[in-house]
Amino acid sequence: MVKHQPLQVYERQLCLSCLTGIYGCRWKRYQRSHDDSSKWECSWFFILCCSFLLLLVWSYFWLEAHNDYNEFNWLLYNRSAIWKDGTVPILAATLTGFTYTAFLMILALCHIVLGQQLNLYWIHKIVVLAILLTTITGVVFIDDFWQDEWDIVIISLQFTGPFLHIGALAVVTALGWVIAGQVVRVERSSDLLLVLYLVPLFISSPCIMDRSKLGPRPAVIGRRGAPMLAPEHTIMSFSKALQQKVTALEADVTISLDGVPFLMRDRTLRRTTNVDKLFPARQDHDASFFNWTEIRSLSAGLWFLRDDPYWTVQYMSEKDRNRTANQTVCSLAELLRLAARTNRSVIFSLRQPPHQHPHHQLWVSDALKAIQRSSILPEQVMWTPDWYRKKVRAAVPLLQQTSDEKLPVAELKERGISTLTLHYSQARAQDIRQFSGSNVSINVYPVNEPWLYSLMWCSGVQSVSSDAPHILKKVPNPVWIMSADEYGLIWITSDLISVAIVIGIFIFQKCDTQWKMSGMRSYNPEQIMLSAVVHRPSRDVNLMKEKLIFSEINNGVGSTDELSGYTGNGLDTYSRDDIMTPARHATKL
Predict the structure, then answer these.
(1) Long-range interactions of 418-427: CB distance < 8 A, separation 24+
(2) Which domains does the chain carry?
(3) Is the pLDDT of residue 53 over 90?
């Protein structure tokens, strides 16, 4: 009696099952297909790619915007009157969405490599579409609410551009294996690689320079003291900044109802004091409508322990926490005395009181009186307000005149301005060189990250204002600096390695395809085993089955036209006529 073995003998493919199961919920082998993906599924793959790329840019934006997280939270506070760290939910949602789409992208690329049909599961489609729409909404919101922050992307590319180019080159080179299997897209992929190879021609960075031309390390100015280590605008904050070896102290000055200049950034006292406890009916009033006695009675440190704006309270000692709780609002006179005692400079901006304020017209003279009554030298004070500048120069001629307005050099000289205080988005390398050549110093704010500090250093700025002097203190040299020749060598080397790998991939793919085709042409379909007398491994059975299918397609032979037994080990073979059914056997008899 002849035993027959079924044609469909499968080997376990756990990895492939997981791949198609997670991506398209196709866990069974009969659900998979090697056919070309439909236009509908290709459209969803395009949507997935768009979601991934948009999230990649969105993630990069928030990664570089870390320098200005506190500014973002402060803008949210001004709009909602409630202090909260709005970056936490944004970062959590961005990380989740990016991880999800990146995982699906990897699965989709694996489908393409293995020749599997793309068939994204409907739940994945809903989630991907929701991620895309949410990201677009976030981009529109930031463009409306924080539009100026987009500049950080352009500026950061001057620092990260060379490394992003190498990373993109490595990714595209690694995807060469996928691209090589798609013959139709070879020409397009070659164009993409050519563009990537030539990208360094358009990369410009201040850090690509000769080390001999690097200027001195920029001085660090404590912006509102050291607000990451202690409550802003308090004596404790300025003392912490002095411990970090800052060269100057920066503050925002407001005039009280009785004409005392004090330090306050906000229009009201709600955020940085306990005014809601002592004066609940007046908590939304302008800070300048409180007299100095009332202001002095407020705590300027409890809010820092409660809100923990920089996530640093957990690292404070018990002594520092007690000291923080006892901080009060600081006056300009106190700041000037501290600076005089430690031989530091002071730079401040002055806010004019409202029209109903009794010192609305006297605000400049009130600030000048505080300077003249203190023991600080006039040349240690950097005067920023443009109001009544001529009168100020006439009253105290030794004050250092500074401006936060980017003006032509001739006009700066006419006004007697020797220092420009600019936002980092306005500090271009060519402008910095021009001002420095005219003996106008450049101070850039806010600079809280080492990469931005390094970029400003290579650009040639003289000083930076920072909320994080304790971080910049740990940057003795630029994070990276290289000459044009060194960068050119890295560029050419990486391009040559990429070209060699891509050519090797295409050659291997071509040879592998030719080998498979030659193997199918030389294989005899009659070698397929029907008899189970000799049990062959399932892997061999599958291989022979696949070769039979391909050979039948090429030779036009149907599976019902010819079947043979297995000839191995001296066993006889049987044709279709030799295998008789019971009916045929009875007829013959």
Answers:
(1) 419/382, 419/443, 421/347, 421/384, 421/445, 421/465, 424/155, 424/452, 424/456, 425/148, 425/151, 425/152, 425/155, 427/456, 427/459, 427/461
(2) 12-145 (no CATH), 219-473 (3.20.20.190)
(3) yes
